[in-house]
Amino acid sequence: MSITSAFVLFSVIWFMIFLIAIPIKLQTQGDLGEIVPGTHASAPEVHDLKKKAWITTAIAFVLWTVISSIIISGMVTMRDIDFFKRMDPEATGETSE
What we know:
The chain is mainly alpha-helical. It has helices spanning 3-21, 29-32, 49-73; strands at residues 27-28, 44-46.
């Protein structure tokens, strides 16, 4: 796995976790009863994005470590997930002469 691939994998994992974490424990203006005129009652009032970003980074790093070690070790290859058998058969190293 190249450095670029590792960075892209980490970024995808980080953003997926962050998008899951954003609505957790979100307090809206409607929940607090202090609706600012001109805004929706569902607009966030207390979101703790900095805390969620740090938690997301920690979780993403652990998941990235596990996933990248699986990729690097070769436990799962592209041939393992080729359900429609579109890849050529793997070369065995023997010639049929």
